[in-house]
Amino acid sequence: MNLREMSYIKQIATTQHFSRAAEKLYISQPALSKAVKKIESDLGIKLFKKVGTKNILTEQGQYLVKSIEPVLIAYQAFEESLEVLKSNKMVVNFGVIPYYCTPFTTMFLYGFKNNFPKIKVNVIEATQDILIAKLLNGEIDIAMTEEPIKSKNVEIFSAFKDDVSVAVGKNNCLYNRSSVSFADLKEHTFNIVTSGDVLYQQVIDGCHEAGFNPKIGYQSSQIGLLLEKTNSEDGICILNRPMIYDNILINGTLSDLRIIPIEPAPQCYCYVTYRKGASISKEVDLFLKRITEELVEDTKECILQT
């Protein structure tokens, strides 16, 4: 079964109509029908069944489509790579979870672009599950996540550890404290990241261990908004220490915020990952090394570096 035949089956499965699929494939419907009959004859299985006006995949057809999808995605990536080579463009496809779309990321990308103007960096913001799929399919070259990607087909290039801390405004009664525990935060209003992030669960677990449920005032995936809310009102915000610092550094209106350590400190992590066995271009290799160097400076401890 060749790539053209695979694309025929995939398109029919997507549109559920031979006529619509034929239009998208730029062939006639009779030609497409003939091609499908030949494929079914060669494989010895029935791929589609008629349900009303639609052509629905059989159970065997569903299995086949799941098998050919990665092949078609990989080939598309290959064709895109050829186009890059033909146009002499240098590209890095960088995937990052929303939680790490921070001033650090913005400042790093801005500096990288200034230093290497010929290298185009495509930034893909997505959840970790989506980034894993894109990394394995070759749609992205690098992923930055807060959890290690558990797959034998990926390699961690560098990893970092830091402390989780509390940000408070100058009107907060904790402002002059040198450290706090979760028990000290019981009466305070929490401005917190959205559920699903590792940090969210760390905060909830820390509060529960201290014997209370946190009073949540504002919840968002946008770290800057959480800190602005904390600075303007009498609440607290628990985040990775460098994340608070980077926001204060880039946003003058947050200069009154104070970073207070939590004891014992929950740990936060950052992982920079690439696909194992992939042919790493010099541009991707440069990007990996540069972002690692920046993270070494920004975080408390580098726990892994290849």
What labels would you give this structure?
306 residues, 10 helices, D-Maltodextrin-Binding Protein, domain 2, two-stranded antiparallel ribbon, single chain, 10-stranded mixed sheet, Arc Repressor Mutant, subunit A, 44% helix, alpha/beta
Could you describe the 3D structure shown?
The structure is a single chain. The chain is elongated and about 80 Å long. It is 44% helix and 24% strand. It contains ten helices and twelve strands. Helix 1 (3-15) crosses helix 4. The strands form two sheets. Strands 3, 4, 5, 6, 7, 8, 9, 10, 11 and 12 form a ten-stranded mixed beta sheet that branches. Strands 1-2 form a two-stranded antiparallel ribbon. Pfam families: HTH_1, LysR_substrate. This is LysR family transcriptional regulator.
- Residue stretches low in confidence (pLDDT < 50, at least 5 long) are none
Number of domains: 3
Question: Biggest sheet: strands, sense, closure?
Answer: 10 strands, mixed
Overall shape: it is: elongated
Roughly how much helix do the residues carry, as a percent range?
A: 40-55%
Mean pLDDT: 90
What is the CATH superfamily label of the largest domain?
Answer: Periplasmic binding protein-like II
Cα(first) to Cα(last) distance is 40 Å
CATH class assignment of the largest domain: Alpha Beta
Regarding quaternary structure, what we see is single chain
The proportion of strand residues reads 15-25%
Domain HTH lysR-type: 1-58
InterPro entries: HTH-type_LysR_regulators (IPR050950), LysR_HTH_N (IPR000847), LysR_subst-bd (IPR005119), WH-like_DNA-bd_sf (IPR036388), WH_DNA-bd_sf (IPR036390)
Family: Belongs to the LysR transcriptional regulatory family.
Keywords: DNA-binding, Transcription, Transcription regulation
